[in-house]
Design goal:
The structure holds 2 protein chains of 2 kinds. By secondary structure, chain A is mostly beta strands. Chain A has no helices and 12 strands. Classes of the chains: A mainly beta, B mainly beta.
Amino acid sequence: AQKVTQAQTEISVVEKEDVTLDCVYETRDTTYYLFWYKQPPSGELVFLIRRNSFDEQNEISGRYSWNFQKSTSSFNFTITASQVVDSAVYFCALSGYDNNNDMRFGAGTRLTVKP
Amino acid sequence: NAGVTQTPKFQVLKTGQSMTLQCAQDMNHEYMSWYRQDPGMGLRLIHYSVGAGITDQGEVPNGYNVSRSTTEDFPLRLLSAAPSQTSVYFCASGTAKPYGYTFGSGTRLTVV
């Protein structure tokens, strides 16, 4: 069975600090996809990134970066120079490579960025 | 470009009542699913569909029913509401390959 663990329930930082959100996953599949979603206070779910299991290159998008390490089954998300608008719940998710049938989400990490 | 539309946004039910949460998408996505979000538990998959006429159970299907008569619509039925079904419900759609879902804005359901 697939499982995603986000051990950090809540994180609070001061604006401009860097913060890393941890994600550890379990799967018996040899190929799979990993995702991060953001849920701001308004409640909608926003897709941030998808990473397939073949590609262990780190990804950077502006202040966001993702570190995928297959050896430790982790897909961590770092926000550099955090801003108040980054305050949200962030979910890590895992799905099979060939289908969308069973995407599993972690419990989420609530990030609060204080001014 | 509506994306995924869920109705209603809020609903209060009495125990034992039935209702249908509506979900429609206009992106011609094959895949649609229903999740429930509860504090500390993330999103849990209730039911999903990989195309019209095809549905299957997810992680927490008990007490819910679905059907998919068209590509666009995927309603979720609560047969006899229970307080344990108090939750926020999200509908999602996507292509057959897992390139990332588009989520609806959610339905906050309270069962009293």
